[in-house]
Amino acid sequence: MRLEEREITSRDKIDKFIMECSVVRLGMISRGEPYVVPLNFVYNNGIVYFHCALEGRKAEAIRTEPWVCLEFDEMYGVSVEEKTTYYKSVIAWGTAVFVSDIDVVKRVLEMICIKYLDSSPGITEEMARRTGIIAIRIDSVTGKERKG
Asked: Which domains, and CATH codes, for the chain?
């Protein structure tokens, strides 16, 4: 199979895959070196949202250099006979910004709780003020897959 045959060209298919992923890896530059962290997230209207501490290495990196890369993937299996793996992956680029609107912070925290817990504890304003929410609008994206 040629590489171009693996390319995912449908943005709808890419968006659907991102929504179904449970983990995203965020790549950024921190203290002059590459820094990658796995995150829980939600995806809504072309924007990836995740929560973080208001201080720390990730927050510092985003404030210093907000241009980031996101990686989403799923491995579906391995074929010994074909000597290959079956997978889907998406890489996206965008600019990370802290969300300052407390109502948006509360709404995103609720969405994260519902995605991962199937319910929400009821996000209070105090909880929202102590939690950072980062928004990354996807500027460009590529995807590929190998179907089994």
From this structure: 3-146 (2.30.110.10)
Check if the beta carbon of residue 72 is closer than 8 Å to that of residue 89. yes
Q: How far apart are CA 77 and CA 12, in angstroms?
A: 24
What span, in angstroms and rounded, lies between the C-alpha atoms of 68 and 63? 11
pLDDT reported for residue 120: 79
Asked if residues 41 and 49 have their Cβ atoms less than 8 Å apart, the reply is yes
| pLDDT digit string, tens, across residues 114-126 | 999 988 788 889 9
pLDDT of residue 122: 85
Distance, CA of 73 to CA of 25 (rounded, Å): 9
For the entire predicted model, the pTM comes to 0.90
